[in-house]
Design brief:
Number of helices: 11
Largest sheet: 11 strands, mixed
Helix content: 25-40%
Structural class: alpha/beta
Oligomer: single chain
CATH topology of the largest domain: DHBP synthase
CATH class of the largest domain: Alpha Beta
Order of helices and strands: EHEEHEHEHEHEHEEEHEEHEHEHEHE
CATH architecture of the largest domain: Alpha-Beta Complex
Amino acid sequence: METKFWQVSRDEPQQDIIELAALMIREGKLVAFPTETVYGLGANGLDSQAVQKIFAAKGRPGDNPLILHVAEIEDVYTLARQVPPAARMLMEKFWPGPLTFVLPKKELIPDAVTAGLDTVAIRMPDHPVARALIKKAGVPIAAPSANRSGYPSPTQAGHVWDDLKGKIDGVLDGGATGIGLESTVLDMSEELPVILRPGGITKEEIAETVGKVYIDPGLYDTKQVPKAPGMKYTHYSPRAQVILVQGTPENTARRIREMVKEYDSCGKKVGLLLTTETWEKIKNIKVFYHKNIGSRHNLLTVAHLIYSELRNCDKAGVDVILTETYEEQGLGTALMNRLLKSAGHHVIEA
């Protein structure tokens, strides 16, 4: 399959390119496009055969539901049987933006989108290219991240090209994504709102609008099955082994120095993805690959870089990636969720 690659302006996407990509969506083809979180792999969300192509291209398990992307709040009412007042309030506050709602679905939505569930996930992305594509296509666009299943999500069009060239019909290159972590998934299909996946909108921000918000215990307790089917799978993992080091800044730095020496003695190539604060405590260490991923006091930068740097470690030929942990509050909750899954919950206490 030939995969077309279009470079488009982020703020004023070229209409002729958007029209061509939208036509592909209507024809049942697959087009990757940028959002404010990560690149998505889009298909007509009302076309079961088109949706099934997403699973084939990614190697994605069939029981892992997809998110439908819409261009306007009113579009939700054509897809969901019920929209609680609290959900509407959150949409008006955070949309367009990285917040996905799980709601009771209408019958027009194919089972392939929802993995046979009676609910559907819906969000409105905050990216001019994505919004233009959805509007021009005239259908909700089903889209998971545009990568090989289980691998770090793509935050640049080049990541999509590396993973899916020859397997999809087109890629819209709108530049690097902003947030770099996927949207928060909030289940509002029952009485109490439950976060099924932490993301760009934090629990604290949601609670300010609707009061009490719960987190699916399966996200933290490996003995429990997460309510969202896809969360039980390994995700965000590069080929290299990822290990998290947890402790005070001083102890973390000391333990990482020790581990680098241990792996070097075994002939292992080590990559370090560390914050400014930890780098300052390690000093002058010789390592195969390293990247300062920003300050612990600005996790937006860390979140923006983490997927891209996991991929860069693979490109460099790293065997083991050492990185640090973060306090699980605010954006740190989503960051730790992704890092723990990337590392297979391999955490070393410093």
